[in-house]
Every structure is written in structure tokens, then in C-alpha cells.
């Protein structure tokens, strides 16, 4: 007799889709089979049973250099994630220029411990001084498995020498490097030109950073990683033109992979051209491209050039004090925070645009939103798969349910969703984290503080 049995569902077990019961004991999957008994039983008849979503690119309750935090807390982000079928996240620990790592890491861990999500961190390196790099072994010992580098943004961008220092440090310690690829100088000059011409509206965000700006930085990041012999994971690839650089690297046998996000197959640069200040709601970097680019992104996902879909969830409200309008509703595009919320919408958007529209199959869906993110974060097979011995993180999924996305359904602390009004087919009915039901029919029931830190082992190259 197991603690819990999920009975009668159709489970996605790696590449197979089979009718099977699931027995859970001690928070782990203990049995997969024809007839499994449990002290508690959940009827999954008519539902799919999928591995809990793993979102390896989130920004949650991050501190700002000038003080204060993003308004999405670990508790509100946990609710949002569970509402959307995600049970594990990897978020970011900041480093401020001139500052160290360990103190920020411990503070970030303390904030995350107040939430309900199982979690890990990428350590952002904004200033790879000798002193900062000397702190990396202690972070590795505590279970940080990856570094994050930004090639743009005033406060974060690394020049080639600094990025090479990050790549070398990662190689020395067996860490993955995740990188935001856009050319900082090109964006700066284009922004100056646009502002001088009086082009300040949100829509000019896209004009300031066209695909070539992302493609150039991606090619450069890949070349520098090749030079150092360091594996690379390119974050939020926006279109096929950029993914092609990754495909070429892969064809040469380089360990380079890429992720994309739902905004790159649901939103367009045109969304930033809505009346008044509304366009700010869709402002993220890289910028959303064109409807034609959406198909290119799907083609790259089907080819496996891109193999992870994350949310890049970023907690900026539209009205809130720290949000999109923090510099007023007439703020020029370069004074509006970049980033959009998407934790809860991720699985429904990938399922609806992917599986319901026939672009990918069910095992492909589970790989994009759970298995491959768990693999890149070195959390597989504890996370990301329905297998005996894995954590019992499961989503019972209603593949037929038609839902119109509203902000209330997202259950986050942010006052809007860029996906408001979008119709999706497929929605999570129940979310289970380590054997505990944490969401049923939209009602989240987990206890704050119940999320676990996930130490990630290094992988020396
Ligand atoms: O616009 C975005 N993506 N903001 C969040 C930070 C980042 O670049 O990932
Ligand atoms: Zn980024
Ligand atoms: Zn589309
Ligand atoms: Zn991000």
C-alpha cells in the first residue's frame, strides 16, 4: 500500500504515453503499473499525467542595486507556478558591480526558503574580479551548479575579457554557463539615435535591438566558449536566425544548447505598438519578433536545436511602484524595466500552441517543459521525469479544457499578464509536489516554507 495512488490516468513516461497507475511513497514515485493501491487515491480518469514543470529561467524577488526587491515574492511565485503546473524552478542570485557573491547567495536562499517551490540558483556574475571568482568554490560546495552572464544591460553587461573570465571560472569548477546574448554597444547607439529622433514610445524597444544584435552576440558567445572549451546554454532565443548560430555550433560538435520562451511564439513586436503606454506590458529582451518568426521557433524546437522552453518570468507590474511605469507613463522605452511574467502561462501556452495545434507530440511537450530543463540544470532524474525513484512531482492535465487566460488565473503578485485574453486548449487540473497535492482546480494549498533547496552537483569537463 502506497501513501498515494494516482489511478486511471494516461501518463507520459519519457517517450511512451501509456495508461498506468502511479504509486507514491515518501514523496517519491515508488510504483508504475496496472493496479496500484494507496492510502489516498486520486482519480486521473480522462486526464494526462505529466512530470511537474521545471522552469530553469526565472527572476523571483531579486534585489535591485539601488535597494528594494521585485514585487513577486517566493510565496506568490510559488502559487503562480503551482497554478500553472510547474513544481521546480531555477532562479537567479545577483551580483552587483564591485560586490561579492556569498552574502547575496545566502540572502537569496533565505528568501526562497519562504516559498513552496523546489529551487536552485544560477549565480549572476556582473563583475568577475579575482575576489568574486575566489568565492565560487564555496557556492559550488553549497550546490550552485551554474553561472549566468549578461552581454547587455548597463548594470550587468560583460565585455569579452570579463566574459572569458566567467567562462574560464565555470570550466575550472564544472559549472554550466547560461548567457543573455545581445550586443550592448549596438543597442546603446541605436537607442541614442532613436531618442535623438524623438522616437521614445515602447514600440521603439524592438527597433533598438533587431535580431542581428542578438545573432552577433550569440555567435560571439559561442566562439568564446569554444575557445575556452566551456559548455554554453543560450537563454531566450527569439527567432530562427539566432538559433541557426546554435545549430552551426552543434553541427561542429560543440556543447552548445539553447532555450526559448512562450513570448517568442505568441507575442510580436506589434504588441509593443498598442495605444498609450500599453506596449510596455510586452517589453522584454530580446524583443518579441514577427508572426513568421513564431513558426521558425517551432521548427528549431522540433529539430532539437532549441530544447528547453522556460518562462523568463520577471516580476514587474504595470502600475506598481517598481514596475513598467516607475518612471511615469510617458517614460521613453529605455527607461522601462525589461521583462514579463509567465510562470503560470508557460505550460498552457506550450501545450496549446504545441500539442493542441499539432506542432509537437506529448513526449516532446514533456521534454521541452520538464525533462530537458531538469537535464540542463543537472536535476535529472530527480526532477523532470515520471520514473521510479524520482520525486513525485506530477501534473494532472486536462487536454480538452478551453480556457481564456486572465490575470487572476495566473495567481501572481503582478497586476497584469501579457497573455490576457489568449485562448488555450489544455489546462492543469491538479499539481503534486513531492507527493503532496499543492493545487486542485486552481486552488493552491501548499504551506509557505515547504519548498526545498536543490543542490546541484558540478560536472567537470
Ligand atoms: O527582458 C527580460 N528578459 N528581462 C529579464 C532579464 C533577462 O534579460 O533575462
Ligand atoms: Zn536575459
Ligand atoms: Zn504564432
Ligand atoms: Zn531572464
General description of the model:
- The protein has a domain at about 55-355: TIM Barrel (Alpha-Beta Barrel), CATH 3.20.20.140.
- It has helices at about 75-85, 100-110, 130-135, 135-140, 160-175, 185-195, 205-210, 210-230, 240-250, 265, 290-305, 345-355, 360-375, 405-410; strands at about 1-5, 10-15, 15-20, 20-25, 30-35, 40-45, 50, 55, 60, 85-95, 120-125, 145-150, 175-180, 230-235, 255-260, 305-310, 315, 395-405, 425-435, 435-440, 445.
- It contains 14 helices and 21 strands.
- The strands form four sheets. Strands 8-10-11-12-13-14-15-16 form an eight-stranded parallel β-sheet. Strands 3-2-7-18-19-20-21 form a seven-stranded mixed β-sheet, covered by helices on one side. The chain has a four-stranded mixed β-sheet with strand order 5-4-1-6, with no helix packed on it.
- Helices cover about 30% and strands about 25% of the residues.
- It is an alpha/beta fold and about 450 residues long.
- The chain binds N-(aminocarbonyl)-beta-alanine and zinc ion (3 copies).
- The site of one zinc ion has 3 residues, from helix 11.
- Pfam families: Amidohydro_1.
- How do the strands of the widest beta sheet line up side by side? 8-10-11-12-13-14-15-16
What is the CATH H-level superfamily of the domain at 53-356? Metal-dependent hydrolases
CATH class of the domain at 53-356: Alpha Beta
Overall geometric form: globular
The CATH topology name of the domain at 53-356 reads TIM Barrel
Strand elements, count: 21
Provide the β-strand percentage band: 15-25%
Q: Which kinds of small molecule does this entry bind, naming each only once?
A: N-(aminocarbonyl)-beta-alanine, zinc ion
Tally of contiguous helical segments: 14
Please tell me the CATH architecture of the domain at 53-356 by its name: Alpha-Beta Barrel
**Gyration radius over CA:** 21 Å
Largest sheet: 8 strands, parallel
Helix content: 25-40%
Name the average pLDDT.
97
Uncertain segments: none
> In oligomeric terms, what are we looking at?
single chain
The CA-CA distance between the termini, in Å, is 43 Å
Quickly give the structural class: alpha/beta
GO cellular component, one term: cytosol
Enzyme class: hydrolase
Cofactor: Zn(2+)
EC number: 3.5.2.2
